[in-house]
């Protein structure tokens, strides 16, 4: 059994200042506050005492400090609470309950802020807040948080008492969220204009806050408290709407007065302990919902709103009598505690625990799958890198082999190049050099001799024959020297010039001699002269043969020069190819280094994951 306390319903009266309509009509104040808790009639002898009486200048915040804070604290501790305003139309009930949010908030927003303020100061506890907002209009219960839910039904539960079937309950985690729900519900509430109020509530509204709490350690029981914040419609007489009131307004007035009358009867029966008559809770939806609170289930605080104007004397007197009867009601308040899975917070915690366990299992499964997938990916990646490394190594070996072949080809080509740096000509012996110089000198001398006019024609033939033999020997020697050493190109070219000049001179002389012989008489020819034609023809043949040999040698020299130039070009091209291949080798070396580094990183990562897995 939960904790119990015995106390009376807290009742206070708030006096509203005269409004513009009352001042214009010449209304006068006939009620005044006396002390902190008494109100009396100025001209009469009637007076009433309550827990508190608030004058026209009292702010709603002051009323909350006395009437509201105690109820909120009880709710946080696990006791049900109920705060409602009662009074005639236009007496200030809605202003007291809701007020103006930014400048002068009412009891409802002040209660919400105080709930979350106390939660912040309650260390070692966990809370779950739910909110519902309904109105009772023409005895029909409508959901203000869901306008589509109309005419909801009531049901009685042994654990939670009277409950509304299917009502919307929103879980809230901040005062801002609760106030947003409150503002949304206010937009759906039904109001209308009356003679006393331009925007009069045509329904009773109940804003319910359910507070579940439990200690984070120790005892696992959960305290569940419901706070009902009620703004009642005003009690009215037929002249409130005037003679032009519609049938809809008349119907509203009928149901409002009926429910308020039933509430008054319930309060009267509860305040009279000697009266054993049954209490008519079921006569209206309002009293049915208030039954748990009025029977002692809740800490109840009532604020009765009145007008001090003489025009509202009867309504004010009725309200004061209602407040006087309510103050006599004594209640036994019991703390609401439940165990096990009955509390929603326990259900939520169990669901959270189950979800967390499922989440951990899923995370472990995902981690395992990720590890498996990662290991597979690593294995595939390592295999790919290994294959790539092997391909790179093969390419590198191929390029190195190609580089070696190019180097060998380069060396072979370089061996064909003749220059002062890489070719040392054969040392020419003094005898050979003397012979070459002698050939050169004798060639020049013989050429000059042939052209000399000191010789006679008959002496020319033996000399020409001798000269031709000399030139033939010299040419043969030049061929031998050329075969011995290719570095003698310049010498050969120089001697070729002398040789050609000598051959030309001999040929000219032979032609001259032939002309002289043809013009000479036949009788002058001696036996020796008969050999001249044969010698002449022979000399021409020798000269022609020597000329062909010289031309052939010159062609050979030109061809050799052309081949050397081609080899130079080929060598230059091979040098460029080698440089390009070297660049490719450097690039492949860099790629191979990168592959090796990546392979090393993957191996380290694989070892780390294997160690973590172990």
Automatic annotation (TrEMBL):
Residue runs in coiled coils: 338-416, 543-598
Keyword ATP-binding in annotation: yes
A Pfam family this chain is assigned to: Kinesin
Keyword list, A-Z: ATP-binding, Coiled coil, Motor protein, Nucleotide-binding
Biological process annotations from GO: microtubule-based movement
Binding-site list for ATP: 87-94
Keyword presence, Coiled coil: yes
Domain spans labelled Kinesin motor: 8-329
SUPFAM superfamilies xrefs: P-loop containing nucleoside triphosphate hydrolases
Disordered: annotated span: 427-458
Compositional bias annotation for Basic and acidic residues: 427-437
GO molecular function terms attached to this record: ATP binding; microtubule binding; microtubule motor activity
Family: Belongs to the TRAFAC class myosin-kinesin ATPase superfamily. Kinesin family.
The name this protein goes by in its record: Kinesin motor domain-containing protein
């Amino acid at each position: 059994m939960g904790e119990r306390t015995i106390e009376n319903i807290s009742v206070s009266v708030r006096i509203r200042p005269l409004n513009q309509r009352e001042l214009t009509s010449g209304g006068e104040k006939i009620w005044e506050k006396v002390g902190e808790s008494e109100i009396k009639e100025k001209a009469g002898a009637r007076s009433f005492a309550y827990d508190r009486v608030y004058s026209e200048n009292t702010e709603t915040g002051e009323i909350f400090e006395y009437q509201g804070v105690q109820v909120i604290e009880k709710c946080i501790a696990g006791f049900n609470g109920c705060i409602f305003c009662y009074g005639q139309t236009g007496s200030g009930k809605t202003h007291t309950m809701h007020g103006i949010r930014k400048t002068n908030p009412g009891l409802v927003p002040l209660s919400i802020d105080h709930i979350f303020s106390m939660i912040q100061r309650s260390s070692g506890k966990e809370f779950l807040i739910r909110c519902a907002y309904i109105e009772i209009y023409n005895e029909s219960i409508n959901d203000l948080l869901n306008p589509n839910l109309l005419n909801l039904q009531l049901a009685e539960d042994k654990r939670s008492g009277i409950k509304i079937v299917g009502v919307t309950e929103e879980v809230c985690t901040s005062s801002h969220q609760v106030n947003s729900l409150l503002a949304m519900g206010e937009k759906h509430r039904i109001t209308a204009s009356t003679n006393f109020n331009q925007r009069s509530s045509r329904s009773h509204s109940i804003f319910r806050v359910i507070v579940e709490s439990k200690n984070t350690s120790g005892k696992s029981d959960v305290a569940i408290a419901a706070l009902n914040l009620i703004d009642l419609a005003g009690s009215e007489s037929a002249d409130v709407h005037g003679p032009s009131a519609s049938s809809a307004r008349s119907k509203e007035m009928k149901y409002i007065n009926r429910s308020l009358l039933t509430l008054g009867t319930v309060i009267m029966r509860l305040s009279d302990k000697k009266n054993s008559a049954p209490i008519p809770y079921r006569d209206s939806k309002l009293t049915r919902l208030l039954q748990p609170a009025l029977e002692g289930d809740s800490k109840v605080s009532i604020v009765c709103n009145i007008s001090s104007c003489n025009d509202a004397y009867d309504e004010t007197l009725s309200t004061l009598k209602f407040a006087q009867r309510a103050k006599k009601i004594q209640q036994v308040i019991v703390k609401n505690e439940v165990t096990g899975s009955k509390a929603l917070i326990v259900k939520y915690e169990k669901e959270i625990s189950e979800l967390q366990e499922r989440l951990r299992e899923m995370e472990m499964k995902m981690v395992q799958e990720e590890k498996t997938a990662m290991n597979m990916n690593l294995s595939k990646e390592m295999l790919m890198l290994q294959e790539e490394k092997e391909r790179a190594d093969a390419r590198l070996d191929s390029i190195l082999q190609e580089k070696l072949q190019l180097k060998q080809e380069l060396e072979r080509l370089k061996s064909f190049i003749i220059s002062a740096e890489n070719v040392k000509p054969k040392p020419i012996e003094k005898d050979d050099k003397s012979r070459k110089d002698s050939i050169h000198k004798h060639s020049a001398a013989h050429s000059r001799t042939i052209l000399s006019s000191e010789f006679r024609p008959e002496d020319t033939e033996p000399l020409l024959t001798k000269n031709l033999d000399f030139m033939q020997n010299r040419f043969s020697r030049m061929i031998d020297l050329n075969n011995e050493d290719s570095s003698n190109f310049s010498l050969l070219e120089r001697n070729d010039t002398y040789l050609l000049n000598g051959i030309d001179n001999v040929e000219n002389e032979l032609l001259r001699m032939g002309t002289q012989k043809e013009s000479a008489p036949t009788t002058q020819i001696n036996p020796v002269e008969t050999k001249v034609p044969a010698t002449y023809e022979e000399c021409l043949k020798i000269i022609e043969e020597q000329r062909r040999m010289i031309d052939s040698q010159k062609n050979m020299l030109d061809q050799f020069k052309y081949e050397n130039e081609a080899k130079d070009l080929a060598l230059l091209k091979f040098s460029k190819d080698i440089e390009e291949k070297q660049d490719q080798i450097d690039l492949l070396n860099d790629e191979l280094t990168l592959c090796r580094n990546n392979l090393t990183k993957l191996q380290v990562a694989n070892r780390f994951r294997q160690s973590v897995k172990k």
